[in-house]
Amino acid sequence: MNNLEPFMKEKFQIKITCCKINTIYNGSICFSDYNKGFFFKEEYYEAQRLGSVSSVSKSRDVEHDNFEIRVFMYDKNEREIEVFSSLIEGGSVDIFTLDEALTEEKKIQSGIVSQIKMSDKVLYITVYGIGSLLQRPLTEAYSLNCRAIFGDHRCKFDRSKMALKGQIEEVLGKNKFRILENITKQYNSVKFISGNNAGREIEIDSINGSNITIILDNLLFSTGDIIELMPGCDKSIKTCSSVYKNALNFRGEPHIPTVRTILNKS
What we know:
single chain, mainly beta, Pnp Oxidase, Chain A, Elongation Factor Tu (Ef-tu), domain 3, seven-stranded antiparallel β-sheet, globular
């Protein structure tokens, strides 16, 4: 009977399937098929969000396999689903399992978000295997707007010069809080300096006086957390030049004529 114990333990052990999406601009979004939320490696995984993971196409090279994940969005409105979809577009995906003790991690699949469809508040996300990166262009095409990320090594603008540092005075909801200062300028994102989300930067949905609403509602923030309100950029040459005085580092070609301009002159 003792010989069966390892087999029975493995057979009936609960496996939690997890999904971690590393977004391009807003950190990681994590969720699982487990019946309650939990922290793993200092990141919070939402409960009962992940539906299923299924293969879409196979190749001899596992790294090229494409797959589809279903994500339940029943508790979200259309605006929240739209924001969620825009956040994960182009992000890298890791699918893995955990045991109930959250100790044994086993990687299943990884890839890049390629296509997102919605039906009855369920997102069907097609993920291309990481080998698909080999098919991407190696050079950048020209663009009217700046291709740099605001504040990165190409932009070279120090966003902290225009940041507003503050502290959460009162939590008003899952994605809403109040600070002491009355905000008169336009800010694009909140950077958490302390608390559970230290180091994360999240886009702001709206600001009303001293009340701030962010686009994600799966963060656990609390009164006393130190934050910084960070400025944003619409990536136009006008904003870069007149607001930030940074035209020298503009990474775009705003003066290249478009097809419409050429046709209007002919």
